[in-house]
Amino acid sequence: MAKPRKTPRPRAETPKGFRDYFGTEVTERAAMLGRIAEVYHRYGFDALESSAVETVEALGKFLPDVDRPNEGVFAWQDEDEKWLALRYDLTAPLARVYAQHRNDLPTPYRRYAMGPVWRNEKPGPGRFRQFYQCDADTVGSASMAADAEICAMLADALEEVGIPRGDYVVRVNNRKVLNGVLEATGVSDPEQQAAVLRTIDKFDKVGEAGVRELLGKGRLDASGAYIDGVGLSDEQAAPVLAFLTSMGRDTAETLANLRGAVGASEVGGQGVTELEEIATLLAAQGYGPDRIVIDPSVVRGLGYYTGPVFEAELTFEILDEKGRPRQFGSVAGGGRYDDLVARFTGQQVPAVGVSIGVDRLLAALREKGRVGGEAQGPVVVTVMDRTRMADYQAMVGDLRQAGIRAEVYLGNPKNFGNQMKYADRRGAPVAVIAGEDEFAKGVVQIKDLVLGAQIAANATLEEWKERPSQYEVPRAQLVEKVRAILEGLS
Amino acid sequence: MAKPRKTPRPRAETPKGFRDYFGTEVTERAAMLGRIAEVYHRYGFDALESSAVETVEALGKFLPDVDRPNEGVFAWQDEDEKWLALRYDLTAPLARVYAQHRNDLPTPYRRYAMGPVWRNEKPGPGRFRQFYQCDADTVGSASMAADAEICAMLADALEEVGIPRGDYVVRVNNRKVLNGVLEATGVSDPEQQAAVLRTIDKFDKVGEAGVRELLGKGRLDASGAYIDGVGLSDEQAAPVLAFLTSMGRDTAETLANLRGAVGASEVGGQGVTELEEIATLLAAQGYGPDRIVIDPSVVRGLGYYTGPVFEAELTFEILDEKGRPRQFGSVAGGGRYDDLVARFTGQQVPAVGVSIGVDRLLAALREKGRVGGEAQGPVVVTVMDRTRMADYQAMVGDLRQAGIRAEVYLGNPKNFGNQMKYADRRGAPVAVIAGEDEFAKGVVQIKDLVLGAQIAANATLEEWKERPSQYEVPRAQLVEKVRAILEGLS
Q: Global pTM?
């Protein structure tokens, strides 16, 4: 059937792993980011917007995969054969910006940044190659007050966007405590250390008894396969188990348990002291364990960070795709890292930051009904007589001047049914109708589409015929009547 | 001196042609875009955010340079050897989105989009390879009401962001009128037509007499070089000159002059009729020539568009780099284009849109003092006694709870002078100071840094010693006193 074409038509599609966002998907995200920015600003953080493109050299060793520039990031060569790439997070660009502009920036430098990042990774359901991040970092302060502040700010930000207190908790742990625990085990072989860390990561899944087996001789997993153990003695494994089960009834008890777990390790003791400082600073500002809690079970991401680590978790339940209740889970994470700027300047610069998972947080707000209510469409002024377009435009102009979202139907007006279908598709709350008769009488018909839809769904034919959802008013009362209907809605 | 290094440090710099934006540069732009989005929304336009990355195929023939994908755009091959590229404007992605989702979108589809675009072009002073665009387009309406609406919306948007009426004008012309003028000359050779168009583009520079010479035999330019003419007879040149000088005392006169210029040309007459419709629709909504004017001198971009063309110009004078007054010039442009979707679907879809030059508009607002006033820094709580960090955090917590932007000094507190230098660099309006004495007495010292700076600049030593810009207040009155000082400022 199809004839061969000289220049085939291009396919109208996004590249694989990318998508388009429409209407409220865009505006709700922007509103949420705006509210977070307000909190960050109140805490003294300044906005930074670096460009999407960086040299691969500047992104450097922080690439997810270091072998080839084209792994993990989208990269290309410029006219000078230099490799450029799209940023894959907002932290690597911060390190570059701080190193480049450090003489002009305050020290410490508190900055926030929000915007898209790109990952050249296999896309999957809900996993896209472009997504938003929303970060705040303090560069140049070694004080635990910086870490405490970021935890408090994260709690404030979650409440500000509509997650009520009690529905979230910020959990704080410390990489140094884990290092202390490793020291206390007496394990010094790096491979065995790595095996211990991998086992700790499985605590969520296999529990205390499972970890005990995996640290020792091994265990049979659910499928019946035998998993080799790390081969520690009971005595060596003890500090790890003490660490994993150190959560106490209150902060003081947790900290005491952690001190026990790290034993004589100096770095471990320092880590516990840092957690104590954070807890004290937060308590002084009224942030108790109902909002921010010292919790040794936060083990994800410990490898990346060098000191305190934190994670914000939403604690309410949602139904998964199979209808089973489950916890919503993590929406933000962060911690202290000290080596990011040094690669540019040779100087260690202490830094601590947090990154909010924008899309997950937005999903949580939709789940809680905090955003994503029925989007209010515009009032639609229909076109009964195309020679009267100036009059329709004047109506729509009056409505807009009054701050009411409104539009005139701009398609082919021949078929009036199409205009009402259009109003429906637009989610219009009100339609305005005026033809020859109305212009002669100086009136307009105003149709309450929301009420109309309710009547259509529930009313008898007689009730429907009475059309109580349509009003004839003088043209001069157009704005007033539309406003009254809209206010009745909200 | 420098030893050879195994892994040289990466250079901390943006790629050539890119830059970082700090603090108010980011927030002022975001605020301006937010206000424009409100106007677009009120007009019934819906937000659209497509991804930064498109297939080169989809960007297709709209590439600034069609020969190689890597000319004009930043492009690379994905794992399937497909060429991907960063979008270079927001119109090409709109065409792709509309073609892809047209069955789910209302017709006509009004959408706005704002975000960065990327050009792989030679950077220059003030010309960057990433910059913002802010577009609104109506796809699927051939009605001149769509064009008129976009002109009115553009005028509203300019006023909304702070360009007062009288400081801008939206000028409207029509490509069809120009086509009609070409027909009226009787010139049919495409090369000669192109030469006529190039000459019209020079009207701004060389004026009526210059264009007359260039359309005929040619002329001596300012440098003494002889520029060859197009070779038209006086009779052939007459419609062009009539077109360029058709601006009348009012819209009716301009339209009459244009009708004269296009003579018997059908397309030309249609173009004049379209301009007449736009003027009538705008007049019905109260948009007179003080805001939107039919102006045949708008000739830039006529090649791209197929019908009405418009341009928003700021009419106030600024001083150029040599201190000479000049008009600020164009900040937005747009028009009607009908061939963008057809390349995907084969169907002509009429469309009209406008693009605001975000950075130029922001520069204009700064010039008018509408944005960019002194950025208000945070209140800085200094650290006199590092064992009291929890108390300082509590102070800053109280201030933030009260909605006051505040931070505690997080650097090394040893040198108090550094803390005051930091407060200065942050633009802090107020510093809070509390040491051993203050804690013992239950008070804090509050320093009005703005008043202090004024006194330091103008006062005698005696006045300065009295330190009237520093207040001792009970700790419980911290928030109240800081607020009073801040309110005195604003």
A: 0.90
